[in-house]
Amino acid sequence: MLRQMLILSGLGIAMWALGTLFFMLFGDWVLVAAEDRQFGASLFLLEALTALVILGVALVVRLRLFRMPGSATRFGFIGALIGLLLNTFVLLYRDKVLYDLDQGQYHTFTIWMTLAYALFLLLPAIADRLIRARPAETAHDRDVDDGLNTQDESAAYRPE
């Protein structure tokens, strides 16, 4: 359990770092002020990209890393907790971290961040809910499988 929490925490930090680095590098180009005509389309595309990344990582967590039910939801909770805590400091020191953004772009960043963390809580839980666990193997299924995989016993028996 501790190993899982450490890995999920690392993934949460990586997701936060990816988002923050993206807006540090490209924020001046992709963020438009809320008063601009392209605000809705720009925000929609940013949120759609964010949703795809979150859903992809949640599916990797659920299907590859930890195959137990609830692991993607746990990833969403841990990632949102870590990301919100770290983004508190990003917003506090915005002049040093997001120095290229003007006031309108900064407001757009906070709107994106709010919606992104709502997606971070919802999408992994939805992915966890949609992925069904494998049904338990019944005794009848084992008998059928054993019958198909073994050789005919009458051919193997040789009396002496």
Record keyword descriptors for this entry.
single chain; 160 residues; mainly alpha; 7 helices
Description:
This protein is mostly helical and 160 residues long. The chain has one domain. Helix content is 78%, strand content 0%. It contains 7 helices and no strands. It is elongated and about 95 Å long. Keywords: Membrane, Transmembrane, Transmembrane helix.
Please outline the helices and strands:
Blueprint: H1 2-30, H2 39-65, H3 71-92, H4 94-97, H5 103-130, H6 139-149, H7 153-156
Transmembrane segments: 7-27, 39-63, 75-94, 106-127
Keywords: Membrane, Transmembrane, Transmembrane helix
Region (Disordered): 141-160
| Secondary-structure element pattern, one letter each | HHHHHHH
Largest sheet: none
**Helix tally?**
7
As a percent range, the share of helical residues equals over 70%
- Shape, please? elongated
Q: Could you state the oligomeric state of the chains shown?
A: single chain
Strand content: under 5%
Question: What would the average pLDDT be, to the nearest integer?
Answer: 87
The number of E-state strands comes to 0
Decide which structural class fits the backbone.
Answer: mainly alpha
Distance between the termini: 57 Å
Low-pLDDT parts are none
**C-alpha-based Rg, rounded:** 24 Å
Number of domains: 1
Keywords: Membrane, Transmembrane, Transmembrane helix
Region (Disordered): 141-160
Transmembrane segments: 7-27, 39-63, 75-94, 106-127
